[in-house]
Specification:
single chain, alpha/beta, Rossmann fold, 8-stranded mixed sheet
Length: 388
């Protein structure tokens, strides 16, 4: 059934193909390909004909001549073969040459395009690299210039820092010199030769012109024995074994004198003791006059001892709410009940040790710190005037 139904369709298709075949054969490339395909398709038939003729000629060389028509013509199949083969071969050869030529042409075009594209890309890349190299060169020059500029700035900064250091040194020296001059002037104004005091409680006003030795026998015996031991500013608390010195002629006082002019010779005193005396003198007078003067009175190996309010311990106690302000103020500045009861100085163990060292004492030792004495906390210090 199917073959009967499709037969008209096949016939119509074959008819259409026969009509279109001449047109296709006239096209340049497709026509040649159809001729080549037709020759290839007919090649087995042609080969069979050639083989048949060859066998026949082999059997009888005169076979072809005998097979010729009476007018000498070749058999139709041979004539068709001889006529169709050369054109077909020539067409195949031309088609192959044209295809090869087109292939080579297209290949050369593609290669040329690829080469041109490659050259263009290479040129663009080369130009880009040259541009980058130029930019890097400019950047290197800029970096070098910046480096030189920074080096110059560093040199200028170093020179400026050195200049500032030199200026600081000069300013510090000038400040030190100014402070030295100021202190010298103030010292001369207050404690220099020929000074007068307007305040009755100042040390210059209360120092007597001459010293009075109250207990001459005790003084002479101690001098003869080489055991002159002075207790400066004894007040109401004289000490046994010492020549007790005070501005006031109180019970137990052996010498009525100011501590800055004592009736002894330099180098003949074995020990100088003072309890709550140093704070009654300003810092400059103590550092410039009194400590060097007392040291000059001590013999070699003599001892200096002092008990003073411990400012460090009392301030710490006040900060801990363990000492009242009134107590701290009174102990620091003195009760100020009489002319000699004014305090002009305050000490810590470190500050007084520094003063003694500056005055030429050695072997400075702190014997006690923060020791209670009534409302006051005191410390005791000892120093030596060299070795015996």
């Amino acid at each position: 059934m199917r073959s009967l139904e499709t037969a008209p369709i096949h016939q119509a298709a074959r008819g259409y193909f026969r009509q279109m075949l001449p047109r296709l054969l006239r096209t340049p490339v497709l026509g040649r390909l159809i001729h080549i395909a037709s020759a290839l398709y007919r090649m087995p038939e042609t080969r069979a004909t050639i083989d048949n003729i060859a066998r026949r000629l082999q059997d009888d060389p005169h076979q072809l001549r005998h097979a010729a028509a009476p007018n000498g013509a070749l058999p139709p199949e041979v004539q068709n073969l001889l006529m169709s083969m050369p054109p077909a071969l020539r067409q195949m050869h031309r088609a192959q040459q044209e295809i090869a030529t087109q292939f080579h042409t297209q290949a050369e075009q593609l290669l040329a395009q690829a080469s041109a594209a490659s050259d263009t890309q290479f040129a663009a890349q080369r130009q880009h690299l040259e541009s980058l190299a130029q930019q890097l060169g400019v950047l290197a020059q800029h970096t070098h210039a910046q480096s030189q500029h920074l080096q110059a700035l560093n040199e200028r900064s170093g020179a400026l820092a050195q200049s500032l250091a030199n200026l600081d040194t000069h300013l510090e020296a000038a400040r030190a010199r100014q402070e030295f001059v100021r202190r010298e002037l103030m010292f001369e104004f207050r404690y220099g030769a020929g000074r007068t005091s307007k305040l009755a409680h100042e040390p210059a006003a209360i120092a007597p012109a001459t010293a009075e030795i109250v207990t001459r026998d005790k003084f002479d015996a101690a001098r003869e024995a080489g055991q002159l031991k002075l207790n400066l500013g004894c007040g109401h608390v004289p000490l046994d074994g010492y020549l007790n010195v005070d501005l006031r002629k109180l019970p137990g006082v052996d010498i009525v004198s100011g501590v800055e002019r004592l009736p002894v010779q330099p180098g003949e005193v074995a020990e100088i003791m003072s309890a709550h005396v140093l704070e009654h003198f300003p810092q400059e007078q103590l550092a410039r006059e009194l400590l060097p003067y007392w040291k000059s009175l001590l013999r070699s190996g003599g001892t200096f001892r002092a008990v003073v309010p411990d400012a460090e311990a009392m301030i710490a106690r006040f900060s801990a709410d363990q000492m009242s302000y009134d107590t701290l103020r009174e102990v620091t500045f003195g009760a100020q009940d009489y002319d000699g009861d004014f305090h002009y100085n305050m000490f810590t163990p470190q500050s007084l040790a520094k003063l003694l060292d500056a005055a030429g004492f050695n072997d400075v030792q702190v014997l006690a710190r923060g020791r209670p004495n009534g409302d006051c906390l005191e410390f005791e210090i000892r120093a030596s005037n060299g070795k015996e």
